[in-house]
Write a structure and sequence with these properties.
Blueprint lengths: L1 H65 L15 H11 L4 E8 L4 E8 L3 E8 L4 E8 L10
Antiparallel strand pairs: 1-2, 2-3, 3-4
Helix pairs in contact: 1-2
């Protein structure tokens, strides 16, 4: 009876260790997969916001053209007047920081702008050679926490 009990205990321990090992491997595979999916989904939302910003800028430039006003204000901190930024955010639904670098007057659209949220940076640039826009999304990570406790 002792040998049977010892054999059952030994096989139970083996199966328990085997089950824990499989569970550990599954968790180690799922965590990066879920993290990748979350980052991918958030970056697609940032891209959608950036495209909406570009569309809002184009719509406002048409409106401003009728008012004999320019959307691009090189002397301003973000390349645009404060009321322009508010209108763009309202039209696009974006909540991050928008910086217009330059305006392509020949095409009547933004030449280059940045859209930054807390964890992503989107860079839009119109490529004159290919005659099409270029979108790049970068994930921002805090490297150093200077001045934070």
């Amino acid at each position: 009876m002792g040998k049977i009990r010892n054999a059952l205990t030994h096989s139970f321990v083996r199966y328990f260790i085997y089950a824990i090992s499989i569970l550990f491997v599954i968790i180690m595979v799922l965590i990066p997969a879920v993290n990748y999916y979350e980052i991918h989904t958030r970056s697609r939302l940032i891209l959608m916001d950036t495209k909406n910003i570009q569309l809002a800028m184009r719509l406002l430039s048409i409106q401003y053209y009728g008012q004999d006003r320019n959307i691009y204000q090189p002397g301003e901190p973000y390349g645009m007047a404060e009321d322009t930024i508010k209108e763009i955010k309202q039209l696009s639904g974006a909540e991050g920081e928008i910086t217009l670098v330059y305006w392509n007057t020949s095409k009547g659209l933004p030449g280059k702008f940045f859209y930054q949220t807390d964890s992503f940076l989107a860079v839009y640039e119109y490529d004159d050679k290919r005659d099409e826009p270029e979108w790049n999304i970068y994930r921002l990570k805090e490297v150093m926490a200077l001045g934070k406790e």
